[in-house]
Design goal:
Low-confidence stretches: none
Oligomer: single chain
Structural class: mainly alpha
Distance between the termini: 46 Å
Strand content: under 5%
Mean pLDDT: 86
Length: about 180
Amino acid sequence: MAAAQASDGKIDAAVATLLRLKAVHPNDVDGLTQLASLYLRKADTARAAAVNAQAESQTTADPSAFAPAATTPFGKAFKSLSTPLSTAISTASNTKFQTAYSNMTAAYSQAVGAYQGVAKVNPNDPSIQFALAQTAEQAQDTKTAIVAYKRFLKLAPEDPTAPAIRQRIKQLKQQAQLPTVSTG
C-alpha cells in the first residue's frame, strides 16, 4: 500500500502507512528501509524548495532600485513605502527558506532514525551501515556518521571504497573538532 501511495506522489500518506506497519512490526527491515527512503525523498524535495527560495530571494529586485529621485515629492513618498515593502519581501523569502530548510533537516533526521532501526535489526549488513552513515552526514549528525562508517569498515574491510571511507572518517573527525562560530 505504501509503495502505491508513494508512486502516486502521496509521500506523507505512505510514511503514515509505514509508521503504522512499524508500530505492529518494528523489525520489518523492508518497511523500515522504505520508510528511510521516503524520508530521504521528503528531504530532497525540501532541499529543492530551500534552493528555490534562496534563488528567488536573490533574484527579487529591491523596490528602491526603481525609485524616483529622492528629492522629488514622489521620490520622498516612494521611499517611505519602499522600506516596508522591501522588508516584507525579504521576510517572506526568509520564511520560505527557513521552512524548507527546517523540513529538510527534520526529514534527514527521520531517515537516520529509520536506518538506525534497520541497522538494529541487521547489525551485520555493511550496506545498511553505509546508508546510515551517508544519511547521517546529510543530517549533519557527524557522530552517527563516524560510528556507522567505522562499523561498515569492520564488516567490509576489503571493500573497494574502504580507503575513501577511512579518509572521510578523518575529515568528519576534523569537522567535529572545529569550533562553532556564533552568528548572532
